[in-house]
Amino acid sequence: MKTDNNTMINKTEQEWKEQLTPEQYYILRQKGTERPFTGKLLMNKEKGVYKCAACGNELFTDDMKFDSHCGWPSFDREIAGGKITQHEDNTHGMRRTEILCGKCGGHLGHIFDDGPTETGQRYCVNSVSLEFVKAGEETPAATAAPANNIDTVTLGGGCFWCVEAVYEQLDGIIKVESGYAGGEVPNPTYKAVCTGTTGHAEVVQLTYDKSKTSLDEILKVFFTVHDPTTLNRQGADVGTQYRSVIYYRNAEQEQKAKEIIAALNKEHIWDSPVVTEVTAFDKFYKAEDYHQNYYQQNPEQGYCRMVVRPKVEKFEKLFKNRLKKTH
Hints:
By secondary structure, this protein is of the alpha+beta class. Helix content is 24%, strand content 25%. The protein has two domains: 13-134, Peptide methionine sulfoxide reductase (Metal Binding Protein, Guanine Nucleotide Exchange Factor, Chain A, Beta Complex), CATH 2.170.150; 147-322, Peptide methionine sulphoxide reductase MsrA (Peptide Methionine Sulfoxide Reductase, Chain A).
């Protein structure tokens, strides 16, 4: 995932030991965990900003925090702009997603898909990893979208590298995650999904700010950058894992998807009818860490040059007024 426009901080472990307290070093640098229900920020309800205790990177605001009763401070989203990075964590016999400060790489905790708000996320964070600044003492560098402006939709349009690369540039998209959905096999691997026997499709899960973009716009992009008329394939990528599909989370999303498909078929945009599935969302499994932000990390890889880049360039040309601002 992308980091913000601040310079990455790189220090030796000795330098971190000199800067941090022993407990901070254990958690932030050695990926430790504080005992549940002991953190000083667990019950904090004051207005303000939560920063990385190691580098001051602004991570969360008070309106993102909620009581999860899990024993650690919990947040339903992060301040936009790549403040946090994610990595697969297979330690302790579990498969989890670790969250780290995007500026210094300090360990914060883990993220789970069991949050109670509209984002569906729970950032479970160690108090020791955070520094809290009360409102009025310092102005936040970023303003978060209110929770009621946040929504999520899951889309499959062929290889998730292509779809992810496009939506990472659309203004209003808060988070893009590549993964798998629609199948019967729990916790599938990329290798298994590629066999076409798991029932899963390669998908991207989009978290977006409805005050900056809309489902209508997101679906217009979707139908622009892939071919929705080819059953279980996109170009040379063939198999049910490459099917065109929209996994809706509510009646509004279902209705909008069906309306757009009906309009496209009526206007005969393509010679063949749209075969995109419109299916109720069930479960999303995040793909392996190396698949996240794949095009940005591997722009000169053969598939990226030949397949992903033309889709990105098409999007940039047709939606040039809707690109995220860069610094």
